[in-house]
Amino acid sequence: PSHFLRSIVPGFLVERRHYSKPRRSRKAAPRSNPRPSPDSLIEDLPLTAPHGASIMPRLRRSGILVACFLIVGGCEKSLETKPDDTSAQLDHIRTLFGLRRFKEAERRCTEVLKINDKLHEPKLIIAQIRRADGDNEGAIKILSDILAQKPNQIDALLRRAETYLDIQKYEEALADANEALRLTNNRSPYANYVRGCIYMQLHKLDLAIAELQTAAVGMPKHLPTHFWLARCLLMKDRLGEAIEELNVVVKLDPRFTTAHLVLASVHLQNGDPDAAIATLDADKVIKHCLEALEVEPKNVEVHFLLGLAYLRKESLDEAKAQFEEVLKL
After folding, report:
1. What share of the chain has pLDDT > 70, as a percent?
2. At what angle do helices 282-295 and 300-312 cross, to 10 degrees?
3. Are 94 and 84 in contact (CB under 8 A)?
4. For the whole model, what pTM was predicted?
5. pLDDT above 50 (res 128)
6. CA-CA distances (angstroms) from residue 10 to 151, 185, 295?
7. Per-residue pLDDT tens for 14-71?
8. Exposure letters 277-305 (e unless 16+ CB within 10 A, then b)
9. What is the distance of C-alpha 231 from the center of its chain?
10. N or C: which end of the chain has fewer CB within 10 A?
């Protein structure tokens, strides 16, 4: 069950950009429990993401991608006439980074720093590029250099906390998040979010829930906050509250298939199969399940969700066949 998502969602690594870069692949552990667990569906998802890592999928969905390329073109034309215009340079860098054109963004950052080496934003972006490329130690060094020059740089503290979290240095991550909260007089919901992720990793679920709830109030449209809050609530068997948070997630991003699958599983655990069926995008689930079964034909969870998806489409013979396969397995 802990590797269920890798089998049922072939496009999982793309959707994970909501959160982070893909982790190293791991061998699937033997399954001892044939019943799908909502928490197991999301336990392998990464926690935090380099700023901008989730931009590209959203741009494609919303049609803003063309606008971003126009911004890049506009910035380049402006820089042709005013090559030392720092404001235009930074606009250009932000857009390149959002488009995940990391090499170009880093080259531009280096050029800006030659003009003014006291600017922190280009250094922050380079650190985020290092993190996105998996060079966490390199990112930490850059962020530590920024903080050596300016100890109250909130963004650098939070970015370093996230990077420490990536490499499981929880004490260091918590220290940076705490300092960010102190410097902002407890008015940094993103710091609450990072602390919630840390506490979740440390299995301090009550503290994690409290932090993530605070973050959700301050950042009501921040999808990862609601998603990880749902996971913590699931781990505490607070199913009703978890369903509420997952409903927020699928409302924020209706195309996030993973959230729909988790929500359907929670409804099943809560004894509401009708709600589980209503949650599923049947055509998408059927496609994912059929592809997954080509790789792993005896996956009980996939057969079960495929049966639910067929029920959603009122394809009763196909649904019955899948449920019979579940019973057989």
Report:
1. 74
2. 150
3. no
4. 0.70
5. yes
6. 43, 44, 10
7. 233 333 333 343 334 443 334 444 544 444 444 554 433 343 344 344 444 444 444 5
8. bebbbbebbbebbeebbeeeeebbbbbbb
9. 13
10. C
Whole-number Å distance between alpha carbons of 85 and 92: 11
Is residue 13 over pLDDT 70? no
Residue 9: how many other CB atoms lie within 10 Å: 22
Contacts of 33 (CB under 8 A, 6+ apart): 1
Alpha carbons 262 and 248: distance in angstroms, whole number: 13
Helix (H) or strand (E) holding 148: helix 136-149
HEC secondary structure over 80-106: HHCCCCHHHHHHHHHHHHHCCCHHHHH
- Exposure of 154 by Cβ count < 10 A (0-12 exposed, 13-18 middle, 19+ buried)? middle
- Using an 8 Å Cβ cutoff, are 153 and 138 in contact? no
| The CA-based dihedral angle spanning residues 68, 9, 26, 300, taken in that order and rounded to the nearest 10 degrees | 170
Is residue 232 a contact partner of residue 208, using CB atoms and an 8 Å limit?
yes
CA-CA distance, 163 to 103, in Å (whole number)? 20
* DSSP 8-state secondary structure symbol assigned to residue 18: G
Amino acid, single-letter form, for residue 160: R
CB 89 within 8 A of CB 59: no
pLDDT digits (tens, 9 = 90+) for 238-276: 999 999 999 999 999 988 877 887 888 888 888 887 788
